[in-house]
Design brief:
Blueprint: H1 10-29, H2 37-51, E1 55-59, H3 62-72, E2 80-84, H4 89-97, E3 101-105, H5 116-122, E4 127-133, H6 142-152, E5 155-159, E6 167-168, E7 171-172, E8 179-183, E9 198-202, H7 206-216, H8 220-226, H9 235-246, H10 248-266, E10 273-274, E11 281-282, E12 288-291, H11 295-304, H12 331-339, E13 340-343, H13 351-365
Parallel strand pairs: 2-3, 2-4, 4-5, 5-8
Antiparallel strand pairs: 1-9, 6-7, 6-11, 8-9, 10-12, 12-13
Helix pairs in contact: 1-9, 3-4, 10-13
Length: 366
Amino acid sequence: MQQIRYESALVEQALGAEYAAQLDRYLRQIQGLNDIKPLVREFERDFAAYIGVKHAVAVNSGSDALAMILRASGVKKGDEVIIPSLTYHAVALAVVYCGAKPVLVDANAGDLLLNVDGVARTVTSKTKVIVAAHMFGRACDMVALRGLCQRKKIVLVEDVCQAESSRLNGQMLGSYGDFGAFSFSYYKPLSSCGGGGGMVVFNDDKYLHIARWMEDWRDDAMLLGLGQRFAPMYFMDLVALRVKFLHLKKIVAARKKIKALYEKGLAGISSLTIFKDGSGVDSVPQNFVVCCDCRDELMHFLAANGVVAQKPYMPLHAMALYLTPVRRKFPVSEAYHRRALHLPLYSFMSPEKAFKVIAICKKFFS
């Protein structure tokens, strides 16, 4: 029995011949690997136009994108950066590496996204940046967050690493804040071939020089002062991304089709909670989140029937390894960690596989 996996190389197999052709074209255009910079700049321009912003700077990863943004924003020791507890640990690490303090806020129960009222209560005179992490392909309340940041003169950063190609009120995520950070790692709609890559996007011209300086500077003393070397996007990542970018509309449509099948097929299971797009949100998922009280039993039942699902990662407030202890409560993040399961959803996944996952879930709950 062939497994239905949480991750898949199906899109890589479908585009393998085009990867090879693109690699051949690029190799014929360059004399050395340092010659790839014009090719990267071309991709940056195309991606900026796609998101609807003036500038894009390609980096090695989404983590580097966040770190570059925080440094460009002037975040330093003693500053506070508000982030969700329910997000990937790289967000908090980027803050810690700047010497600043990550201040955690819980999620909304209805959509698992950053709670705006909680953010407003958490803002202090030390708050330098608010990071709105668009989780599960869905959009934070950017209208409310942008208004809050404008009133308080706080930098608004969109973490779009899990929501690339999603829209809010017809506008691409990444174009609402002062900055947007993207990741092209595995599982994303637009991803390199199992590798990395990331992008920083923004509109303010003054940040372009700062970002280029951080990306290109190699002086040892200045690197020590900066505290990090920002590697450029790798050549092989660029090759894969250029090919996938040409097919992005098909990739997005395929993922949204599977999302719709899951939403319809699982909606009648009363013991299973699913999350649908809110008003004005058009999401492109990288997985499909469900919640139930018998999460572990469901996961084992799926595995026994050939479906590989995945548990979520731990909320940041529970990771005392590198964060200062927090005294606030995070009931939504904790409930998500205890009850959530990520079902398989990947580029070019067949409807038949989605129907099988749905059938196994129905059988379990029956």
